[in-house]
């Protein structure tokens, strides 16, 4: 939106042109923002303390958990809890989560991208009303529909399969994906489409050859965002699966809780193990994810 | 399949001369959304007029489920708990997210680094967050005795006066990072020229915040608030694992009440009626928040830029 507005405005002196980030607080003679910094560091502590507690506790043995100070790291760190969790079919649950996540995110991206392309570049009542329907989908707590979904899945004989988790996850990812992708699609300059059209390219070609490569960062952002949701999803697995062979990670955390009862360090080790893949993904793609999400939601 | 593709491509090339892409491109997304969201929405309304135990036959039951849901005091309590959670978590999350968003949007390198760390709670599943906080809040082996602060060594999750605030805190811990990102993006969209003009007029940091940043963030606030409020109606997994609605009914909020009625008490009719109530509340709140923003968003957002 911002860029289209700017194109319409006649060029002005560089000093008043918009800049990518307003450089506030950096001008000469400005006091540092002490109160702001203090608050920011306090929030950091609020965020980090529980994470720290989970990690150090997962490295304690059971005796150590009951005897050492809860906020102190273990005197003799051990990986036994991790071994215990890995022996409890963790790999199976991990694989299930991976299948469900990849199986939902890729189709969701594909159909959302096509829809976003049509919504931004196209017109007509059909496209407009579909776009409105998706926006409405953002305003509705879709989880209220779990009972009919349960009914549909059991009637289709898909209960307790991974496909039962994949299909509704795709549908629930569509409204937000279409919204963010359309926001980015609007920033692709119209001139590029026009010149390709003069070369005789169809919309189908332009969508894959022009829009998709230009929007790769946005597609990756939306993909990771959806992957977070599906990977961490709890409600669908809870109502649509039952047996250990279809168990996904968040549900396995919940069942470990009962299995390990008093063995808190082992439960927390399973928390760490279930989060590790996302942490790795985040460390690799953090810059793109953060800038993509900040831009995608604020347009 | 092949014939559909050729037709749609032909339509595409014909339309491309004037109108842009064919409507067929929205069809796959629309089909998924219709089958797994719109039809279930109609289904939840239909099922609310039936009686069904989740396994056997679905029998039409008129307003039987509605009568039992509306006269059950637990429903009223669930609505009250939900309303409290929505209001409290909004009051806690909105200002923190706004201030952190404004702060992390600054150009300083360390602020960007902070933003990276702030995101970490979003990587954890709600089940993981709930399990972590259950351990952390343990009065004997958690943070309270660890830090040696007796006030923190309470039976947080067993005390029905405190537990709601604990839930609100844990929700904030998990979701403030997301809204911080939204505000951070919003602030970055504010034209630098507005700040320069304010500075020339001699406005200090606080004046700039109230006279430039806040008014310019109006639409960001509406986006964030809508997601926050509608999101509050979906806090299921976190509360389910953290407290299971207890102690007693003190944290049994509407989505959880719906789940327990349907899948634990096997009364799918009543659970569907609760689902309908949930949808109506969500829609009313979202429309109300959008109305606050007024129409014609894009036009006014960049006024005077």
TrEMBL record, chain A:
Xref: InterPro entries: MetI-like (IPR000515), MetI-like_sf (IPR035906)
ABC transmembrane type-1 domain residues: 94-285
Compartmental location: Cell membrane
SUPFAM superfamilies listed in its UniProt record: MetI-like (SSF161098)
Biased amino acid composition, Low complexity: 8-19
Composition bias type Basic residues, residue spans: 20-29
Region (Disordered): 1-30
Transmembrane segments: 33-55, 93-120, 132-153, 159-181, 218-240, 260-283
An annotated GO cellular component: plasma membrane
Keyword terms, alphabetized: Cell membrane, Membrane, Transmembrane, Transmembrane helix, Transport
Top-level lineage group: Bacteria
Membrane topology: Multi-pass membrane protein
First-listed, main subcellular location of the protein, grouped into a coarse class: membrane
Keyword Transport attributed: yes
PANTHER family membership: ABC TRANSPORTER PERMEASE PROTEIN MG189-RELATED (PTHR43744:SF12), ABC TRANSPORTER PERMEASE PROTEIN MG189-RELATED-RELATED (PTHR43744)
Family: Belongs to the binding-protein-dependent transport system permease family.
Name under which the protein is recorded: Carbohydrate ABC transporter permease
Native organism: Arthrobacter globiformis
From TrEMBL, chain B:
Topology with respect to the bilayer: Multi-pass membrane protein
Keywords: Cell membrane, Membrane, Transmembrane, Transmembrane helix, Transport
Membrane-crossing segments per the record: 24-49, 85-103, 115-137, 162-183, 227-249, 269-289
Biological process according to GO: transmembrane transport
Subcellular location: Cell membrane
Cited PROSITE patterns: ABC_TM1
ABC transmembrane type-1 domain mapped to chain residues: 79-289
Origin: domain of life: Bacteria
Cellular-component GO terms for this entry: plasma membrane
Protein's UniProt keywords contain Membrane: yes
Record keyword Transport present: yes
InterPro entries referenced in this protein's UniProt entry, alphabetically: ABC_transporter_permease, MetI-like, MetI-like_sf
Protein family per UniProt: Belongs to the binding-protein-dependent transport system permease family.
UniProt name for this protein: Sugar ABC transporter permease
């Amino acid at each position: 939106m911002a860029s289209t507005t700017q194109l319409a405005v006649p060029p002005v002196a560089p000093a008043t042109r918009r800049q990518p980030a307003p450089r506030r607080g950096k001008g000469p003679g400005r006091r540092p923002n002490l109160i702001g910094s203090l608050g920011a560091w306090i929030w950091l502590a609020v965020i980090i303390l529980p994470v720290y507690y989970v990690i150090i506790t997962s490295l304690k043995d059971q005796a150590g958990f009951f005897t050492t100070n809860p906020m102190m790291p273990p005197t003799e760190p051990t990986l036994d809890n991790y071994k215990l969790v890995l022996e409890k079919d963790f790999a199976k649950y991990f694989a299930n989560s991976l299948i469900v996540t990849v199986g939902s995110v890729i189709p969701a991206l594909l159909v959302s991208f096509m829809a976003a392309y049509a919504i931004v570049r196209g017109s007509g009542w059909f496209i407009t009303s579909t776009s409105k329907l998706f926006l409405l989908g953002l305003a509705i707590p879709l989880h209220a529909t779990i009972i009919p979904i349960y009914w549909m899945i059991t009637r289709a004989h898909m209960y307790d399969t991974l496909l039962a988790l994949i299909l509704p996850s795709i549908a629930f990812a569509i409204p937000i994906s279409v919204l963010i992708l359309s926001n980015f699609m609007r920033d692709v300059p119209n001139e590029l489409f026009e010149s390709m059209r003069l070369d005789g390219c169809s919309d189908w070609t332009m969508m894959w050859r022009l829009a998709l490569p230009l929007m790769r960062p946005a597609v990756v952002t939306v993909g990771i965002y959806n992957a977070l949701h599906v990977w961490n999803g709890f409600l669908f697995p809870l109502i649509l699966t039952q047996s250990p062979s279809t168990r996904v990670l968040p549900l396995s955390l919940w069942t470990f809780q009962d299995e390990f009862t008093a063995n808190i360090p082992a439960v927390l080790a399973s928390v760490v193990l279930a989060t590790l893949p996302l942490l790795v993904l985040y460390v690799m793609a953090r810059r793109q994810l953060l800038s993509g999400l900040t831009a995608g939601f604020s347009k | 399949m092949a014939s559909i593709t050729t037709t749609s491509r032909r339509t595409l090339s014909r339309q491309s001369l004037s109108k842009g892409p064919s409507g067929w491109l929205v069809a796959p997304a629309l089909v998924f959304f219709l089958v797994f969201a719109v039809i279930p929405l109609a289904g939840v309304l239909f099922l609310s007029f039936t009686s069904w135990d989740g396994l056997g036959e679905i029998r039409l039951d008129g307003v039987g489920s509605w009568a039992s849901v509306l006269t059950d005091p637990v429903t009223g309590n669930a609505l009250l708990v939900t309303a409290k959670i929505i209001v409290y978590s909004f009051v806690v999350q909105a200002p923190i997210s706004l201030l952190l968003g404004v702060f992390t949007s600054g150009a300083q390198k360390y602020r960007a680094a902070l933003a990276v760390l702030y995101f970490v709670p979003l990587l954890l599943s709600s089940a993981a967050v709930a399990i972590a906080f259950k351990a952390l809040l343990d009065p004997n082996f958690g943070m309270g005795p660890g830090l040696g602060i007796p006030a923190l060594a309470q039976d947080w999750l067993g005390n029905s006066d405190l537990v709601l605030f604990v839930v609100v805190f844990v929700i904030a811990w998990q979701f403030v990072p997301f809204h911080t990102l939204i505000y951070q993006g919003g602030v970055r969209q504010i034209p630098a020229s507005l700040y320069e003009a304010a500075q020339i007029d001699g406005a200090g940091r606080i004046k700039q915040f109230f006279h430039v940043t806040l008014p310019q963030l109006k639409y960001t606030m509406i986006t964030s608030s809508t997601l926050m409020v509608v999101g509050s109606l979906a806090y299921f997994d976190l509360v389910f694992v953290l407290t299971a609605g207890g102690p007693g009914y003190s944290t049994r909020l509407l989505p959880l009440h719906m789940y327990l009625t349907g899948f634990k008490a096997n009364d799918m009719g009543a659970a569907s009626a609760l689902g309908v109530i949930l949808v109506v509340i969500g829609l009313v709140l979202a429309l109300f928040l959008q109305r606050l923003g007024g129409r014609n968003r894009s036009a006014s957002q960049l006024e005077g830029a």
